Amino acid sequence: MEIILKVENLIKIYGNIHAVNDLSFTVQKGDIFGILGPNGSGKTTTLSIILGIVKQNSGNFKWFKNESNVLNNKKIGSLIEQPNFYPYLSLIDNLKIVAEIKGISNIKEEIDRVLKLVNLFERQKSKFNTLSLGMKQRLALAALLLGDPEILILDEPTNGLDPKGIAEVRAIILSEAKKGKTIILASHILDEVEKVCTHVAILQKGELIKQAKIDEMLNTKEVIVISCDEINALFDSLSESEICKKADKKENEIHVILENGFVPKDLNKYAFEKGFILTKFEVKKDSLEDQFLQIID
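Predicted structure:
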């Protein structure tokens, strides 16, 4: 598989703060690569470095097979933090400015194309300051799609949007991904990363905590959630049993992962034989949110 971006041992320091701390990862062609982490984890700084906006203290990154980190702007479309447009200009006039900066030749045809993609073609003559927040975000997506770049880089693309706006932006991202484009997306919204991304890197305080394919992260052992009136006694019993690999008590529930060779009905049988009457028995798999909270806890 073709490597699109290789990041090696990036470090960025602001005063006493390590915004990015020895960060390494690889993005391959066609990946929807999610950089996930809480606010202040180094997501925006990382994107700013690989886009050449911010200079790292040490480490390096390479786009495509280049020996240098010189960015080819015609291959990459980016949306970092809040989009900047002229409030009293129309959508089409704002996009003309972006198209000229990108050196696009067929400006009218290209603007028509991207406005249709983001469902704003009918509003092309509206001024930017008349748009809703969701429309403004879609216009920003239109701007980064100008020139049909191979790679899209988005920082918190659904931040501040209502459910309808989030769904619209998600649909656009997935539509572009189906064309074989590579997408790098930074977010703190776990549900969106889980629904959109193929790969994820979890950051905390600038450090890479975990990296994996989304389906590998979600293909974890079943977690059995149980409860009973004698919750403390049941927890103590499970902690000493051979059936239980891991047990966590969370308020009035116990989250159990079984040892290999045991199935959920074995846990139910164990509790009954020990004299515990279960009031709750639920089998589930950890969501990305569950794993994220466990990792950064």
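Summary: The chain has a mean pLDDT of 87.
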